[in-house]
Amino acid sequence: AEILRQINQDLIVHKINVFRSTVRTTTTVKNTNFFSRLVSSPANLIDAELLADMNQFTQRNLARPETAEVFHLKALVHQRDEKYYAAALDWLMLQVIYPDSAFAIEAAKQLKELSNDTLKKQAGVIANLAQAIPTLKGDRDQRIAQFLLQFNKLGEEGFASAVISEGEAFLFSNETYLSEDLIEHVIARQAMLVDNQIAIYHFNKLLTFYPTSTTRTDSLWSLANLQRKGMKQFDQAAKTYSKLITEFPDTTESKWALEVLAKMYEDDLKDYSNALKTHAAIVAKYNEEPIVLRSLNAMALLYQNKTNEPAKAIERYLKIPDTFKGGEAHQELIKAEKVA
């Protein structure tokens, strides 16, 4: 075991030396041919190879202080490939994981330069993320997790792909952080900014692997919206909205889901029977809230224009003055009169 430990230590030193020298001696050659750029990757092949090897190295050797330099080298490669968000995240992660490293000082310097130049519009976001780092508590895994959770507060599309990669790397190497579902939730929400199908995949993973997660309500709501708006999978979305309503009946998301589900039955599925049933459930549950006024109006219009039941339309219009006073009541009486 001691011999293997020493061999591995020697290999780590040699690998970092190879990474360092390769980054220094290779350059990015920009492809000036327009048509070639359309069908080729913007990164050099050597940079793709370097990043793949360095990512594997950091996942396996996160606990070693020497790995701080590899994060710095990753940032330099991302920077020369003009992937400035990924470079910024590399330097931020370096500060999170290795706050006492000499490379953490260099990372702060590089972040400042990025904020003053190519990521000037994101300077505030980067500054807020950097300010959060000294407040992180616990061991390495705890700090990484707390930092990644910061991105659930952001809708910054540029960081999304890099955050997904860091989240997946964390789930691979995590040893002490128990709430992995929270990191899967970060990955899923960031994926919403990148690709609908990837986001759906991660929300499905989260809902399957972590059935008691505190993120379950938001995950069902987000998944249903992706299925409805992003993929036009209306039948599947209806099942997901219904699952949310059944599992979490007293949440704000459940109220939203009922109203969206009723509208989707009407507009997208042309299922007027289920639309009416869903509106009726809203009326029965929410009493004098504005959502009830909207549902009563929607029911009246469905009876009037879709199911050809004018008497029921009048009945729904006349229910409104019993609950809502003022201008709404007056308008509904006029509508009932017109139908009559």
Description:
- The chain has 340 residues and is mainly alpha-helical.
- The model is unreliable at 34-42 (pLDDT under 50).
- The protein has helices spanning 2-25, 34-39, 45-60, 67-80, 84-97, 102-116, 123-132, 140-149, 157-173, 180-191, 196-209, 216-230, 234-247, 252-267, 272-286, 290-305, 310-323, 327-339.
- It is elongated.
Task: Give the topology.
Elements: H1 2-25, H2 34-39, H3 45-60, H4 67-80, H5 84-97, H6 102-116, H7 123-132, H8 140-149, H9 157-173, H10 180-191, H11 196-209, H12 216-230, H13 234-247, H14 252-267, H15 272-286, H16 290-305, H17 310-323, H18 327-339
Helix pairs in contact: 1-4, 3-4, 4-5, 5-6, 6-7, 8-9, 9-10, 10-11, 11-12, 12-13, 12-14, 13-14, 14-15, 15-16, 16-17, 17-18
